[in-house]
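Input record, target 12 of the design panel.
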């Protein structure tokens, strides 16, 4: 399973890229409301034809940083993918720092390392 980064582009010709055949792509995003220490995270599941297979959003409390919100969005997407038994998945996020930390896996020593570990463990369990 792959977790990748997609940048934010000003160019309106940027298009969503489908996953490989047999995969579900999970696009995740988060929005942080600093004044209330809360975040909203959302996920969309699409197949290689671009057909939406599901979507969800939830609000989270006591979230203090954009990175924590983005990591929690990735975790939420993976948890739902497992619950929905999607099988082969790939995750796409616009947060390069989150993707980089997940790429480090067990060697992540950031303040978010326990959250990164939860994501890596869940990712690995989906590959089994």
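The sequence produced for target 12 reads:
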């Amino acid at each position: 399973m792959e977790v990748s980064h997609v940048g934010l582009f000003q160019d309106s010709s940027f298009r969503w890229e489908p996953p490989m055949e047999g995969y579900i792509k999970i696009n995740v995003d988060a929005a942080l409301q600093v004044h209330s220490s809360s975040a909203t995270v959302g996920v969309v599941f699409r197949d290689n034809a671009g057909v939406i297979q599901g979507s969800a959003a939830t609000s989270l409390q006591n979230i203090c940083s954009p990175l924590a919100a983005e990591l929690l969005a990735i975790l939420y997407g993976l948890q739902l993918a497992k619950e929905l038994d999607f099988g082969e998945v790939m995750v796409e996020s616009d947060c390069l720092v989150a993707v980089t930390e997940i790429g480090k896996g067990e060697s992540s020593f950031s303040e978010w390392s326990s959250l990164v570990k939860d994501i890596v463990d869940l990712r690995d369990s989906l590959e089994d």
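The helical segments are 66-83, 96-104, 113-127.
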